[in-house]
Design brief:
The chain has one domain. The chain is mainly alpha-helical. The longest helix has 36 residues. It has a two-stranded antiparallel ribbon. The protein has a two-stranded antiparallel sheet with strand order 3-4. 54% of the residues lie in helices and 11% in strands. It is elongated and about 70 Å long.
């Protein structure tokens, strides 16, 4: 499994990644300012809840960058095919290169990828053999951060605000 850096020149992918980073920055600044810090100062939540939010946010953005720059399993220009495996390889119609049977050609990236799942515009990269686990890690951390934010919003509107009104 290679850990080479892979960068795709795709304006649509750059727009999608820019949107994701903008939303991430907005939530990393807005949620703590509106929900976490005021309730921490009032003593309703502990510092652990604030630190957990920032750790989840950090893991999410780190996994986004790792998945977007990791090599998905791009096939080399001149692959060395062992004689015993020649029947498991085929010719790509688009790039005229030999590739393993489960490889696919990505029209966005312009090359063949081993065990390609799909081209994801949100990470601006193909999801293939070498970065599939990074993509799943990104999905996991995004789900954790989204669930935690949803829980904080729920607590804010249905627990902390009625608590303030009764004490007021």
């Amino acid at each position: 499994m290679g850990q080479r850096i892979h960068f795709v020149v795709d304006p649509q992918g750059w727009c999608c990644m820019g949107l994701i980073i903008f939303i991430w920055l907005y939530n990393t600044i807005f949620i703590p300012k509106v929900i976490l810090f005021p309730h921490y100062e009032e003593g309703n939540i502990s510092v652990v809840a604030v630190l957990c939010y920032y750790f989840c946010s950090l893991f999410c953005i780190a996994s986004l960058f790792r998945a977007s720059v990791a090599d998905p399993g791009k096939l080399p220009e001149n692959p060395k095919i062992p004689i015993t495996e020649r029947e498991h390889w085929e010719l790509c119609n688009k790039c005229n290169m030999m590739r393993p049977k489960r490889s696919h050609h990505c029209s966005r990236c312009g090359h063949c990828v081993r065990r390609m799942d799909h081209h994801c515009p949100w990470i601006n990269n193909c999801v293939g053999e070498d970065n599939h686990w990074l993509f799943l890690q990104l999905c996991f951390y995004t789900q954790i951060l989204s669930s935690y934010t949803l829980l904080l919003d729920f607590c804010h509107y249905y627990y902390f605000l009625p608590l303030k009104k009764e004490n007021w």
